[in-house]
Design brief:
By secondary structure, this protein is an alpha/beta fold. α1 crosses α3. Helices cover 35% and strands 13% of the residues.
């Protein structure tokens, strides 16, 4: 047979059996293997690939069980007749369509989200020596064994395979109950199951709300500087955006907000400054919302990892008139790749959001919901959070000490004790885009701040340092290296 095709670059991150099976399947489906000749014997194949003979035998048997191969006693393994005709579209050049002059897609787009400015985070951030990146975690800390255990238990329940079914627009009731009984009360929020919707993260919640509530006749207030993706989402629907300044007490509450129909804000830790909205402003906002018939959209994105001993309750917790739409996420507290979040709001709004979600993707995968529900119910989430909070507290102390030592002039206000990032202001002549590039050459990853300002001429001397992804022992050396980079410009 054509043994030149039997070659695999083995990856240590995956099982050998999976890699061998994947390679053989590709050869079978592509039609590259001869049909009347047996595959190499298990002994020959193991020698060719540099794997154990048992690995090859198990792979062959799994392909027989799946119907890709047939085993003939004393003759070996052959490609099953069902796969003698490879599934190919357009086997020759004559069948291909002639090239066209191209379609003018730009003239057809109603919106062009690709043209909007967005925060750029390198995929290889973990390769940096000093990754002061926001929104990522130390992967080695994730409770992988507990997560796998929950996955096994979810899939092993023979009496309940409901995750296979299409739930249309429903959510897993156990996950809903866990969020209502364990997560929300810590923020001072008590809600009914009819007032919660599971989403695939904060940005999905914002997109649902923008789709339901916003058009060119609607004015929505945003913090400035603020969360860039919120700006991009709401502006995509033609919403009139009012940019409201922030200071060390959070968003400024004054008459400039009077004409807003909605206000999106991050009161627990303002994005990107980390400021906590003061009690006085919280009360003023709720009074203003009642007086001006305004709806407040509260993004409590980092509630799970807030390290404060007694964090300020959510704005939703003191809302007696149901004017606060509360959105949360598991991205910061468990894993940014999990992509599960939730929205708490008046039942009528939740019903419409559920109907819209059904049109978009029906519901988040039920197996993921059930796995997360079990993770919460067995106490793994609480155990993990305690470790993360303790570690982040240590990191924050090291960050403050290092900044006070090497970059004291850049800290313009007090740093919140519960934040996982620090907002700094460089001298006015410093362009932090340039600083970020120079720092990257020294394996330091920082986030330039201009992207968070929504106006036409944003200041270029701000930047943000996240520390949830960097190991504690690297923080001081990283800040020292950043100082040398900064003052070398």
């Amino acid at each position: 047979m054509s043994e030149q095709y039997i070659h695999i670059e083995l990856n240590s991150d995956r099982t050998l059996q999976d890699q061998v099976r994947e390679h053989l399947l590709e050869l079978i489906l592509s039609g590259k293997l001869p049909l009347q000749e047996p595959l190499p014997s298990s002994r020959r194949m193991s020698k060719m690939l540099g794997v154990s003979r048992n690995t090859v035998v198990l792979t062959y048997e799994s392909l027989v069980n799946a119907g890709y191969l047939i085993a003939k006693p004393r003759d070996g393994y052959f490609i099953a007749p069902a796969y003698h005709q490879p599934e190919r579209l357009l086997d020759n050049q004559e069948q291909q369509c002639p090239p066209s002059d191209g379609i003018d897609w730009q003239s057809r787009f109603v919106i062009t989200p690709g043209n909007k400015h967005a925060i750029i985070k390198p995929n290889n951030w973990a390769s940096f020596d000093y990754p002061f990146i926001y929104g990522q975690v130390q992967n080695e800390l994730f409770p992988i064994e507990q997560w796998r255990d929950c996955a096994r238990k979810t899939l092993a329940n023979r009496s309940d395979k409901s995750w296979i079914d299409d739930w249309v627009d429903a959510d897993d009731p156990m996950l809903v109950e866990q969020i209502l009984s364990k997560l929300l009360p810590r923020r001072g929020i008590y809600a009914k199951s009819s007032e919660i919707l599971i989403t695939i993260g904060t940005q999905n919640s914002l997109y649902l709300l923008a789709n339901l509530l916003c058009n060119r006749d609607v004015t929505l207030g945003l913090e400035d500087p603020g969360f860039r993706d919120a700006f991009n989402i709401f502006s995509s629907f033609g919403t009139q955006l009012h940019l409201q300044p922030v200071d060390c007490d959070g968003i400024v509450v004054d008459e400039r907000l009077n004409d807003c129909d909605y206000l999106y804000l991050t009161p627990s830790h303002q994005v990107p400054t980390g400021a906590v909205l003061s009690d006085t402003r919280r009360k003023s906002l709720l009074e203003l919302a009642e007086q001006r018939d305004m709806i407040l959209i509260e993004d409590d994105y980092d509630a799970g990892v807030n390290m404060q001993d007694n964090p300020v309750p959510a704005l939703k917790a003191i809302d007696s008139n149901n004017r606060v739409v509360y959105i949360g996420s598991m991205s910061k507290s468990i894993s940014p790749g999990l992509r599960l979040g939730f929205m708490i709001a008046d039942e009528e709004l939740i019903n419409e959001a559920r109907s819209l979600r059904r049109l978009m993707y029906r519901h988040p995968p039920i197996n993921n919901q059930q796995q997360l529900a079990l993770f919460l119910s067995l106490g793994h989430y609480d155990s993990y959070l305690r470790k993360i909070r303790t570690l982040n507290t240590t990191k924050l102390i090291k960050m403050i000490e290092a900044i006070d030592r090497y970059l004291p002039d850049l800290k313009k206000s007090a740093i919140s004790p519960g934040t996982t990032s620090i907002w700094l202001e460089a001298p006015g002549h410093i362009d932090t885009e340039v600083l970020a590039w120079q720092a990257a050459q020294r394996s330091i990853l920082i986030e330039p701040g201009a992207i968070h300002f929504q106006g036409g001429e944003p200041p270029k001397n701000f930047f943000r340092l996240g520390f949830s992804a960097i190991a504690p022992h690297r923080i001081t050396a990283g800040i020292e290296a950043l100082q040398k980079t900064l003052y070398g410009l």
